[in-house]
Design brief:
The protein is mainly alpha-helical. It is built from 17 helices and three strands.
Length: 369
């Protein structure tokens, strides 16, 4: 289990402070980001044709500790029910409880949960200074039932830090970021099955974890090799190291849909940009250079956490979306959102002609599962 309170405490303690701005400047940034998120939502809706069920509320603007707390809330929604299932499969009190027995086992498990919570908090602290925004898929249940099922969040200090570091027009950059994030809101608000599909794949991935002590030992050995490879400049990462063969198949499907979502967001922010963000070309060039840079330690952390793979997703996904739209148009591209069976596979993302032939080239769409 994970001690979520320790995760929040550790993350908020370790996270670096953001750029120094006055209270007045901070209020102005928050107000402009909220306003620009509404503006971006209109541009995204008009450009993509995705407008079903969109939440008209502005984005929630948070600081770095606020982002950490929001992500811990999301993790709890997804992981706590799965932790209970895994404990049941392990035979009650879990592996550590079973080995220690009685109160001793409970103490060992409690200590383990705090250590794991601290590890989660440390990773979130690292991420919290880099994320510009995200669409939160998993929120705690709303007792009234009136709140949206997802929420768009923008991390104000990171946006300010990025625009200062890049030396770009602040309004243009903020709107450009909002275009990407609002595209994610459009995807999950307009495509009724997409959220459940992602959650089902995540659930299957976690439940496919090895429970056998020997297999877990092999996973730990792979983690050590991944760390050594990343330090040497290789492509080893923790995500690959801890997977079982079954998990790799599931992650392939999950990675394909997230590559599509991230690439679609990148495509829209650049395609809409020239009309509403005059300096979009300058912003994209500088931002891409920033994505690829960083210190040696930062590059190792990115590789270990799989963030370099995420950057590759942006590029491959954007190229897939661009190629399909150029060849068959936006209306035909939007068939990608029809069902899980119309999502592109890994092979189709790398070769969009395969997807066009399978989905657009058929008189009838592949049936939903």
């Amino acid at each position: 289990m994970i001690d979520w309170n320790v995760a929040v405490q550790t993350g908020t303690r370790l996270v670096r402070s953001g750029p120094q701005v006055s209270p007045t400047e901070a209020r102005q940034v928050v107000a402009e980001l909220r306003d620009l998120s509404r503006t971006a939502q209109g541009h995204v809706r008009e450009f993509t044709g995705m407008d079903g069920g969109l939440d008209p509320s502005p984005a929630k603007v948070v600081d770095r500790p606020g982002w950490i707390k929001a992500n811990v809330d999301g993790f709890r929604v997804v992981l706590e029910p799965l932790m209970e299932q895994l404990q049941e499969r392990r035979g009650g009190g879990g592996m550590l409880g079973g080995i220690g027995g009685g109160a001793g086992g409970a103490v060992i498990q409690a200590v383990g949960s705090r250590v794991t919570g601290a590890q989660v908090g440390a990773i979130l602290a690292y991420m919290a200074s880099r994320v510009l925004g995200q669409y939160e898929l998993f929120l705690p249940p709303d007792p009234t039932g009136r709140a949206p099922t997802g929420r768009l969040t923008l991390v104000a200090p990171n946006i300010v830090h990025a625009e200062q570091e890049l030396d770009v027009d602040t309004r243009d950059f903020r709107l450009w970021v909002c275009l990407h994030e609002e595209t994610h809101r459009a995807q999950f608000a307009s495509v009724s099955w997409l959220r459940a599909y992602v959650q089902d794949q995540m659930t299957a991935f976690l439940l496919a974890a090895d429970l056998d002590p020997g297999a877990l030992l092999n996973r730990l050995r792979d983690v050590g090799e991944a760390v050594a490879d990343a330090v040497r400049g290789g492509e080893g990462n923790l995500i690959d190291a801890i997977q079982t063969p079954e998990q790799r198949e599931i992650l392939d499907r999950l990675t394909a849909v997230m590559t599509l979502a991230e690439g679609h967001g990148d495509y829209v922010m650049d395609a809409v940009g020239p009309e509403v963000v005059p300096s979009v070309a300058d912003i994209r060039a500088k931002f891409q250079h920033r994505r690829e840079g960083g210190s040696g330690v930062d590059r190792v952390m990115r590789r270990l956490l799989g963030l370099d793979l995420k950057m590759k997703q942006y590029a491959e996904g954007s190229q897939f979306v661009r190629t399909v739209i150029e060849q068959v148009g936006m209306e035909q591209f939007n068939r990608v959102w029809t069902s899980p069976n119309t999502l592109p596979t890994h092979a189709e993302i790398k070769d969009p002609a395969l997807w066009i032939g399978r989905v657009v080239g058929k008189p009838e769409l592949p049936p939903a599962e």
